[in-house]
Amino acid sequence: NDIIKKLLISGGGLVNLNTELDFERAEEIALEYDRIVELEETVDVIEELLKDEDEEDTKDLVTRPPVVCVMGHVDHGKTSLLDAIRSARVTAGEAGGITQHIGAYTVQTESGTITFLDTPGHEAFTSMRMRGAQSTDIAILVVAADDGVMPQTIEAINHAKAAGVEIIVAINKIDKESANIERVKQELTEYELIPEDWGGTTIFCPVSAHSKEGIDDLLDMISLTAEVLELKANPKRKARGIVIEAELDKGRGPVATVLVQKGTLHVGDAIAVGSAHGKVRAMIDDKGKRVKTAGPSTPVEILGLSEVPFAGEVCMAMDNEKEARSTAEKFIAYGREKMLSETKSQLSLDDLFDQ
Ligand code: GDP
Ligand code: MG
């Protein structure tokens, strides 16, 4: 009663025995009574599950395609570059497939497959980092050759570095008369991105999203970098992935684009995705084709979830539907809202990523 009175007097509004106080407030009050309160860490159910499963039998690991995102200052050509890559690599037979947009796409090059994230991926990026489940292997830092390093270029560098993502610099718009490649290289040395021909280790690719010059070189460099990174995954285990984007479709219900990171996802698999659960009813790839399975580094649209999950949420295949449902219920119990509000307040990356 004392505390309730105090809170009322101090302008805390109407409170009762069941009112939840934030930690700082509780701490203040406790101090008035010469008590010290400690914050009890809540255990994240998903984190626990991920911890359990991270032991991987090395003999089952096989090379997987790199997952690449495009970052950089607004108007430096992120969208144009992603479009140029996509259209340059679409074979005649797939031509109809380009209209399909699922937030990620894969391209085939002579040196292998590459998966591009093609989404306003900041939410995914941040909450994935919170989960320690990184989605991106390589970040393409787009810098316009006529504009040079700008504020969001620097932000992008910082985020990529913090995430431990390999950076490849794409100097874009080299078709422009005012392009100055050397100046961009010079400016980036300040951020420890030093080209190989200057004694550094960063790959620089001069490109033009308009004329398509340098695009093939960029793709080669991505594949080369991926090779060095020795990216591996076990396709035999139960699937785990990350939601890139999700929406409620009028006809199809909740639709989520999932990037499979480990294992293979099958039609018919029971899955838990945050507070959503279900059974994969159908999967559609980035070319709009129905598929029955999706292996590591493959983006697919999945149908069959109980609700629309959030971007950045972990998607896990479970042994059966009952288990999937109970995982989702546990997730809800552990306070999804709290976790997401923490995630959202972390950073605002809207302009760094392509949108
Ligand atoms: P984003 O904001 O980074 O996604 O940039 P956009 O892809 O939307 O491009 C911004 C502007 O730059 C658009 O007007 C594009 O047409 C233009 N642009 C993009 N790439 C090139 C290029 O290689 N050469 C030239 N000349 N213009 C480009
Ligand atoms: Mg854009």
TrEMBL record:
Q: Where does this protein have coiled-coil stretches?
A: 167-194
Instruction: Tell me the protein family, please.
Output: Belongs to the TRAFAC class translation factor GTPase superfamily. Classic translation factor GTPase family. IF-2 subfamily.
| Superkingdom classification of source | Bacteria
Which intervals of the chain are annotated as region G-domain? 66-214
Where the record annotates domain Tr-type G, the positions are 63-232
The identity of this protein, by name, is Translation initiation factor IF-2
Locate the residues binding GTP: 72-79, 118-122, 172-175
Q: What does this protein do?
A: One of the essential components for the initiation of protein synthesis. Protects formylmethionyl-tRNA from spontaneous hydrolysis and promotes its binding to the 30S ribosomal subunits. Also involved in the hydrolysis of GTP during the formation of the 70S ribosomal complex.
Q: Which species?
A: Anaerostipes caccae (strain DSM 14662 / CCUG 47493 / JCM 13470 / NCIMB 13811 / L1-92)
User: Where in the cell is the protein located?
Assistant: Cytoplasm
